[in-house]
């Protein structure tokens, strides 16, 4: 008897490919187009090319159950607001023939939210080019501060926005949106004890830090390198899928996703702070808490790697968890990384 050789990842991606094809007819101007899968993680994103004009678009097929339609509408509303009231380059939603920005595709009795976005030129920053990355982080600090300024200036309007909350409870606590870090790959009893101490320290420090409106608001929540596009001397920001309410400094932590253990991180933080402070103030007390947010994000990513099956999580494996030990020990010892 032979065992089934179907890879669940391949099977899942093939399903998303079918949904993407079913979404195209909602956009009559794309009657002649090609579809190419770009990325599959929380959602599947596709490069759509109009084969008559060679105009490019990005189609996002949302994972069912991750966001409600109202939550996606709130994301798109915020994107349009950023585009209108700031100089930040973002990808904008494109409406279909029915005038709607979100198209609903029903596949196997499940509803999938599909959104078409404008295409932005550029390449993700290169984590192996240290010097270039350091200078890019100064620019990223400026952009992040502008995003936070925009969030604070529109506080009243944003209160009705329906988005996720990224705080201790939803990241490391009782209701973790990306799963429990305790279920991550490579968690041994010793490591669980170490990370529990880290988690408890994070909780204590965040309770003391508080959620004042100058520290906590609507943020991007996933400014990792893959969600940035560099074109000459510009950085553009994409993928607001995880935007929600959280600490402003969490945006810095997300920019260091997957590279938190690299030796050049302190230089990146220094550069980011220089850029950020050129736009809005950041107190010494806030700066001291940066390692807390970095460790919180790192434990969240351990949970994500353990609960997802995609190319990134397969590549990272349990080595990502093991590389966290040094960061955890240092944070417990002196609150630094």
From TrEMBL:
Aminoglycoside phosphotransferase domain boundaries: 41-282
Signal peptide from the UniProt entry: none
Gene Ontology annotations of biological process type: threonine biosynthetic process
SUPFAM superfamilies: Protein kinase-like (PK-like)
GO molecular function, one term: homoserine kinase activity
InterPro entries xrefs: Aminoglycoside_PTrfase, Kinase-like_dom_sf, Pseudomonas-type_ThrB
Domain of life: Bacteria
Family statement drawn from the similarity comment of this UniProt entry: Belongs to the pseudomonas-type ThrB family.
Protein name (record): Phosphotransferase
């Amino acid at each position: 008897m032979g065992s089934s050789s179907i890879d669940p990842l391949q099977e899942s991606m093939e399903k998303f490919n079918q949904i993407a094809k079913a979404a195209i007819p909602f956009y009559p101007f794309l009657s002649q187009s090609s579809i190419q899968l770009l990325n599959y993680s929380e959602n599947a994103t596709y490069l759509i090319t109009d084969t008559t004009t060679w105009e490019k678009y990005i189609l996002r097929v949302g994972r069912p159950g991750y966001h409600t339609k109202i939550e996606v509408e709130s994301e798109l509303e915020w994107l349009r607001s950023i585009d209108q009231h700031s100089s930040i380059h973002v990808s904008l939603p494109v409406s279909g023939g029915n005038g709607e920005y979100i198209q609903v595709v029903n596949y196997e009795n499940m509803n999938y939210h599909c959104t078409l976005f404008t295409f932005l030129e550029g390449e993700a920053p290169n984590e192996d080019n240290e010097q270039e990355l350091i200078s890019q982080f100064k620019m990223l600090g400026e952009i992040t501060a502008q995003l936070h300024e925009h969030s604070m200036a529109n506080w009243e309007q944003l209160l009705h926005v329906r988005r996720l909350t990224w705080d201790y409870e939803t990241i490391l606590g009782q209701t973790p949106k990306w799963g429990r870090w305790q279920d991550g790959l490579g968690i041994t009893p010793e490591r669980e004890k170490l990370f529990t101490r880290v988690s408890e320290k994070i909780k204590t420090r965040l309770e003391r830090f508080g959620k004042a409106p100058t520290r906590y608001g609507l943020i991007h929540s996933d400014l990792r390198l893959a969600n940035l596009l560099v074109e000459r001397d510009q950085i553009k920001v994409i993928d607001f899928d995880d935007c929600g309410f959280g600490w402003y400094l969490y945006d810095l932590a997300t920019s260091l996703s997957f590279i938190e253990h690299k030796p050049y991180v302190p230089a990146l933080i220094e550069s980011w702070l220089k850029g950020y402070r050129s736009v809005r103030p950041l107190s010494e007390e806030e700066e001291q808490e940066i390692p807390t947010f970095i460790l919180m994000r790192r434990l969240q990513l351990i949970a994500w790697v353990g609960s997802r099956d995609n190319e990134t999580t397969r590549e990272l494996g349990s080595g990502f968890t093991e590389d966290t030990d040094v960061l955890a020990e240092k944070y417990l010892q002196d609150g630094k990384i």
